[in-house]
Design brief:
Elements: H1 6-17, H2 19-44, H3 48-64
């Protein structure tokens, strides 16, 4: 690849510099995904009564949020 002008060079430097931030964001997303899966697994193991209570809490929470 040949860099022909300053805007191309500036873009390349900006994109190369962004790698660390992108990796940190990706790692955070993966951790969030793992926590969500762990929570789903834990919820799946609850007795029916506790699961119904958890679903009711979620319904109440959603009803309070403006759309």
């Amino acid at each position: 690849m040949t860099v022909t002008d300053n805007p191309d060079l500036e873009r390349l430097v900006r994109e190369a510099r962004d790698e660390d931030a992108a990796m940190a964001e990706l790692e955070g997303c993966v951790q969030r995904l793992l926590r969500a899966r762990d929570a789903k697994t834990a919820l799946a193991g609850l007795p029916a009564e506790q699961l119904r209570a958890a679903l009711q809490m979620r319904r109440i929470e959603l009803a309070r949020k403006p759309t």
